[in-house]
Amino acid sequence: MTDSTLAPGATHSHVFLGGDHARNERRTWLVIALTATMMVAEITAGSLFGSMALIADGWHMSTHAGAMLISALAYRFARQHAHDPRFTFGTGRVGELAGFASAIVLALIALLIAWESFLRLTSPVPIAFGDAILVAAVGLGVNLVCAWLLRDDHSHHHDHDHGHAHAHGGHAHDSNIRAAYLHVLADALTSILAIAALAAGSLYGWLWLDPMIGIVGALVIARWSWGLIRDAGGVLVDYVPEREELPGEIRAAIEGGNETITDLHVWQVGPGHHAAIVVVASSAPQPPAAYKAKLAHLHELSHVTIEVSRAA
User: Fold this and answer.
1) 94-122 and 52-80 helices cross at what angle (nearest 10)?
2) pTM of whole model > 0.85?
């Protein structure tokens, strides 16, 4: 016995975009514009005034702008193809794929920073402390504005655009916007560490401090990257973390008395959206709609398939 609650010819909606999808898309494009403007300004000024520090920082920002472009294009693609029937469970996980790709880019940036810092540590070069501090300060200001734009609000309402689930009261984790935020945060971190190292270097002549701080920053960025790779990758391979409470809540809602769940599959299909296949064995089986009603309070459960069999 399977779920037969739909009328003949009716279809499920499979739009599992996050409640913040439109907001995140707009803000990501705005951050890209700010970052690209700063990048062009630094590269142009560096070329005009012969400052390698400006040129290097400009190209460094270009890598983050490129990674954030991945996030913005993923939001657009997911929105434009949200109703495409070729995507079995919608395009809600396109953002996870983009977040995973951005995390790889973030890891490569960390490796690049660590390698460049190591080279500077073994072969110190003269540093124009005043110009470098000015560049780092301007970059920090831009990054703080971008971080504010990409901040993850917990206070606003999350609306789900689908026909058979309620508004989710919990927080929907979006790896795509998290990836963009981490790229901005990585830039801000390198700017803060650079300002501190350059200030100390200018006062005490410690040329080694700048590359040492660079290595520390690379390790922190690598740690952020690994966390994002783990979380976004887990969603892509349908991994259910041990801290995930939804499977237990499904069992608690259905099991008891004559009912036993003999097979249960839960996976994420979009930010704040989960799907589930539930196989129930019962000595007095009820229609699938009755078991579906028991799960109605689980608002993050957006797509449910119920199969009922008579227990031996």
Assistant:
1) 170
2) no
